[in-house]
Amino acid sequence: MSRKVSRSSEAQRLRLTIDESVYTSAREILSSLEMIAPDERDSPCSAEIQEETAASASDVIIGADEPSDEDMFQCVDCRANDVLDIEGFVTCRHCGRIITRKLDLTAEYHYYGNDDGKSSDPSRCGLPTNHLLPMSSLGTVMVGSAKSYTMRKAKQHHAYNSMPSRERDLYKVFADITLRAVSNGIPQSIIEEAKEIYKHLAETQVFRGSNRKGLIASCIYYACKNKHVPRSAKEIAEIFNIDVGIMTRGCKNMAEIMGDTVKLELDTSRSSDYIGRYSSILSINDSFYVELAKIISERIDAYGISPENTPPSMAASIIYLVDQVFKLGIPIKDVSTACGTSAVTISKCYRVLMEHIDLIIPKKILEHPEVKENIDRLRETTK
Q1: Which residues constitute the domain of residue 207?
Q2: Residues 239 and 183 in one domain
Q3: What is the DSSP string of 234-278?
Q4: Please, are residues 146 and 123 in contact by the beta-carbon 8 Å criterion?
Q5: Where are the alpha helices (DSSP H) in 145-270?
Q6: Measuring CA to CA, which residue among 284, 302, 300, 303 is closest to residue 349?
């Protein structure tokens, strides 16, 4: 009888230990089985105790991995699970103790004042960090009324000190690059690459005056070449309102700086790189004429015809040749204006192309009766 009482009391003690020890590990609970005598472990009653202990231990493990809301907000004083959320404070209903606070640490991207018509900005999140201007991206902004003189001066002083002088100079250059590039139809991808190039150059060596202007223009020039939509040095110089000589000197300075730090891997510009954009400016929308002009350009490079002409000049001459062969009706003056090449240069290059027209135009096109007739006529006029 005493053995049964001791066994039952031992089982009750184990159950109480498991129920009350929420934060006790399963190993500690199972170790309590060592208190049972070795000869009693094989008895039916001992087996029941072990099963109950293992089941309760598994419940503790599951509860520890996935705690319920009641376990998370259990009162530390009265151990009650009856809690109430009062303005973000988790409070016990029985004793009134504040257990914890619910804090949302995520960013608040909601913009509630978008349609209220007020001038104040109630947004609570800033812009993403700009890797080109890392220090300025981590700054703060002072809000509030600026009616008092002291507050206005404080906000002005804060705004001035929120951006380091070096990054302020970069910001002004980036704004100038963006404004000029967007105004002249340069894509955003080229603008971003030009900013990357200039940031690297500015961190390596400082230039001022006209050398700095030429360096900024050269960043756009090389970014266009990297994206396989090159523009001539003359076009870039006109975009930045500088002489071509300053532009050329900027490219030279850039090559010297980048040569010491990063090797420039730029492909040589070809006339075919300019044909697509020039055709778009001249409203040549038929893809047949554009592709034919590119084929002519490739054959000119393959045969080495007129290597002394620059790629933009050659592209303008090829477009004028296609215009004359197929009677597109584009005056040479319009081609000169769109391509930025003088009419005299286009005429000289056009005459050279006419001498090799049988090589640069595909044979199937030359055999077309109307095309053949036009070419014979053009040969007579260019003699």
Answers
A1: 165-261
A2: yes
A3: HHHHHHTT--HHHHHHHHHHHHHHHHHHS----PPP-THHHHHHH
A4: no
A5: 149-161, 165-183, 188-204, 210-226, 233-239, 244-261
A6: 300
Predicted confidence (pLDDT) at residue 212 exceeds the cutoff of 70: yes
Decide: pTM greater than 0.85: no
> Could you identify the residue written with the tokens 């190039």?
197
Q: Is the torsion defined by CA of 176, 179, 183, 187 positive or negative?
A: positive
Cross-strand partners of 90? 85, 100
- Is the CB of residue 35 less than 8 Å from the CB of residue 10? yes
Ramachandran class of 362: left when φ > 0, alpha when ψ lies in -120 to 50, beta otherwise: beta
pLDDT per position as a tens digit, 34-60: 444 444 444 444 455 455 544 444 444
pLDDT in tens, 281-314: 999 988 999 999 999 999 999 999 888 888 999 9
Instruction: For tokens 């300025």, name the residue.
Output: 136
Same domain (yes/no): 243, 280: no
210 to 237, 247, 249, 250: CA distances (angstroms):
12, 9, 9, 9
d(CA 383, CA 368): 23
Does 77 have pLDDT greater than 70?
yes
Residue 31 lies in a domain: yes
Asked if residue 243 belongs to a domain, the reply is yes
Contacts 24+ apart (CB under 8 A), 356-359: 356/300, 356/303, 356/305, 357/321, 359/299, 359/303, 359/305
Phi, psi of 101 (to 5 degrees): -120, 140
Q: What are 138-188's pLDDT values in tens digits?
A: 767 777 666 788 888 888 887 777 778 888 889 999 999 999 999 998 999
Task: Give pLDDT, residue 118.
Answer: 58
3-state class of 86 per DSSP?
strand
Residues 314 and 251 placed together within one structural domain of the fold: no
Which residues, 6+ apart, have CB-to-CB distance to 213 below 8 Å? 240, 242, 246, 250
Domain co-membership, 257 together with 276: no
For residue range 109-124, what is the model confidence (pLDDT) as tens digits? 655 555 555 555 556 6
How many domains does the structure of the chain reveal?
3
